[in-house]
Amino acid sequence: MPSIHRSVFFALLLVLLVPGRSEAHTNHFLGPHPVAAKYGGGFCLIEAPHMHVYPPDHPNLYQRVGDQLVFTADPTPFGYEGDKHAFYGNHPVITVDGEPVICYIDGPHYHSFPAPDVPDYETRKGVAFYVGAFPPSYAKVRPARARIINAEYRPYVALRPTIEVAPPERWHGEVWVSSPAIGVVAPGVVVGAPGVVVGPPSVTVFAPPPPGIYIGGPSVEINGGMYVEHDGHHGERFDRREHGDRDDDHEHHDNGKHKGWFKHGHGHGGD
Amino acid sequence: MLARCCVLALLLTGCRRSDETVRLSSVMSAFDSQGWKASEQLRPIDPTRFSAQKCVGGLVDNIDTVVCELGSAEAAQRAKKGGEAWVASAVTGVALVNGNTMLALADRTRTDPLGKSIHAVTKTYTALGPPALAATPRK
Predict the structure, then answer these.
(1) Which of A76, A180, B88, B100 is exposed most, by the fewest CB atoms within 10 A?
(2) How far is B83 from chain A (nearest CA, A)?
(3) Maximum Cα–Cα distance for chain A, whole Å?
């Protein structure tokens, strides 16, 4: 066979054998996550392991657990309209095979699930602080992961929860400021980013005002060893424009919105 | 007499364990109780594709659905691969195993873009698990 023909033959063979980028490729997700804009956007509410033809639009906001993608970030900027629960700083999101998957968002942020009612969390004025230990890999992984994920959220500063709270003494996270243009005055440290004030020892953080903070009920129900459903009442709501003034109206939302999930090991439904 | 009692006790225990396993009938009942009329909507289909003993297929809450019953939990895990293959290129799909059953859901027509229906069905399905399968709370 002449060399030119041989080259054409091998090129054709390569085209036939190497699979192209196809929409039929299945992407495995674990838990709720943003829907790809190409498929209408919004927020996928499925908590169980599931598949989509599309890959995530923001892969940096996911962590891979086995062959599954876990959205480990704040759903607020991505069309999520369900209950929201305020957290401050890094914390575990789910536990898979005994290993926690960590949310690396610094500062105030929301999740669709409340903090579990365990000693490793301290909740103050509706804001959950993780005061437990991190796995040994955390210190190594955190710098790069935190830089990436916090950069992703820089455009969404206005959507972060407004928090006026002193972190618990057991909390050892980093105080977050929303802008690099910051003035610091010691000894009572005042950080003057847009609406951000940090004043130790009683740290107070103000951020631009979103609608409100929703604190979920404490009850935990575990479905099938795969994820946890926080059911029942959705606790107190206080309007952030009044900075912590509590509204005693208890609201109940349940339009199929998830209130928390996480997977433990590869139970049924998992791989 | 004692031996007879022991045998009887073992049989009773065995029966109870068997009853606790999630089966096709319990899945159908659970779906019916949610108002999805699974008994009307789901019809027997060829189970060999899923290496199963029996399967039903049809629409549950407007989502393409297959539920299969298998001889054991291990066989159900193997059937999950068949479920994933059945989902194929659907925009959204699920293949889950619970007890001796396998559930596959496929949204092929984008009727459930945010997964509300699929979430409701999977939540009902996974809730059927016996308590022993429940996990411990995360740290």
Answers:
(1) A180
(2) 11
(3) 85
